Amino acid sequence: MAEQPLLTPYYSDKLTLRNRVVMAPMTRSRADNPGTVPNDLMAEYYAQRASAGLIISEGVFVSPEAVGYINVPGLYTPEQVEGWKKVTAAVHAKGGKFFAQIWHVGRMSHPDLLGGNLPLSASTLDPHSQVYTPTGFKDTVAPAAMTVAQIKQTVADFVQAAQNALAAGFDGVEIHSSNGYLFHQFFNGTANHRTDEYGGSMENRARFFFEVLDAMQAAGVDLGKVGSRLNPSLDGMFGMTLDAETIPTFDYIVKRLNDYNLAYLHLSEPFTDVSQNEFAEPHIAQRYRPLYQGTLIINAGFDQEKGNKVIADGNADLVAYGVLYIANPDLVERFAQNAPLAEGDKDTFYVPGAKGYTDYPALAK
To answer: Which of 142, 151, 155, 241 is most buried, judged by most C-beta within 10 A?
Structure first.
């Protein structure tokens, strides 16, 4: 029987992975302690899943202003860095590779999470969504449009978070630049109505994102340890809608990323049916494989069969799995044995404690 493409090693000049299965970043809200410091339970959770070729951590906030969810860890205090050291050590003890996804939610927050301050975004446009606060779901509000000084500070926050991640033992970082969060809000013309150097043309709307990469490089961060996640066809989520410039903007971003020699580019297939949307691209892997020269991770809706096929067809190098990893800590081993997959308990996806987090059993050996 031929070896499954998913289970073959992957080698690039920046990555050496024992298989092509990636654990996708997933918010799990277990940092339910003062200072949202990573804890022993999180170390156990990630170590259980270390047979993945690469683990990308849950989104990790780069500053207090970046926060948009409760009980999500950060990477901006010494205590958080020390907490992450225990988690990365647990993963590395099992032979795993581990990147931190660094994150700013932008307008997808609420004053209750920000000390009474307004969320920050490209423009003062309410996403008309909801955010989970300490007292339950609340409607979003119109954010404050970021000043140039706030943009520069946020660039510095991402640089510091990358440095903190490496100091904490991560093998690299992924910039969360997708799914309707801060960078995506700048990219998207329906969320960005700015008239300064950060709005208008696609080059201007992408400026903030590339300033982060440039600043990381200037600060001595090896861009070979940096990845980026993009979601070109996101539509109807968190107030984001597609327009005629959406896909051309992502074409521009992806092509320009070839100049940065990153660890990888992590792309998501559409989360919703976009087949009737004239502005959408329904086949992200096929579109961007020819445009991007580096390592390409594809995500969203893949099972074992589809994951093997997208690699065999040459449209991606690695496949990221999210929900399947919640209830299947040994997903790689299950793929190897073509074993049945367990189903996760949705009621425990975002609640504190071990239940629905570290209590899913591995296959009996």
So the answer is: 151
